[in-house]
Amino acid sequence: MRKDNILAALRIYLGVIFALAVYPKLVAGPAFANTLNGFLTHFALQNAQPFYQHFLSALVLQHISTFAALVVIGEAIVAVCLITGTATRLAAVIAMCLLANYMFAKGLWWWNPSSNDGAFFVIALALALAGAGRTFGFDAKLAQRWPRSLLW
Predict the structure, then answer these.
(1) Residue 109, SS3?
(2) Among the four 9, 25, 54, 147, which has the fewest Cβ within 10 Å?
(3) Residues 5, 9, 14, 19: what is their CA dihedral angle, to the nearest 10 degrees?
(4) How many C-beta neighbours within 10 Å does residue 24 have?
(5) Hey, how many other C-beta atoms are within 10 angstroms of the C-beta on 151?
(6) What is the spatial distance between Cα 10 and Cα 131, in angstroms, rounded to a whole number?
């Protein structure tokens, strides 16, 4: 199997993972802010990395509705862009930001064997570096039109 096909499969796989993650949040609508608040209050504030606990209590919990909307928007953008292969590098960077936040909130690091988020982070990093949207994706057409852009 060619390297490009493997990268395309990883890209689509990670896009589907994000689609499955965002779907219940979209269905919940504004109520997702309550779910996020519960997770952060009852789990993350006790388990998050120490530097991240301050960020959560000082900023995120104070503006929970805004952060809930940002999570949903970010996950939806990542899902659509990775599945379609559009602006793959940008989507992969957004995915890495989301995944790093998820790991910090859970108190995990990349090397924790139980961290799916860490594995997904590494996949997103590979997608960002390789420009994986050029195989079975719209990035191939975009790269022909704008060959110097770093987005594809």
Answers:
(1) coil
(2) 147
(3) 130
(4) 10
(5) 17
(6) 12
Q: Which of 17, 150, 8, 2 has its CA nearest to residue 84? A: 8
- Give the pTM: 0.92
**Distance separating alpha carbons of residues 79 and 75, to the nearest angstrom:** 6
Closest to 135 measured CA to CA, from 98, 74, 85: 85
Q: How many helices (H) and strands (E) does the chain have?
A: 8, 0
**Band (3; pLDDT cuts 50, 70, 90):** confident
What six digits make up the tokens of 18?
Answer: 């994000």
pLDDT, tens only, 84-120 = 999 999 999 999 999 999 999 999 887 777 789 999 9
User: Is residue 31's pLDDT more than 80?
Assistant: yes
What distance in Å separates the CA atoms of residue 113 and residue 5, rounded to the nearest whole number? Answer: 27
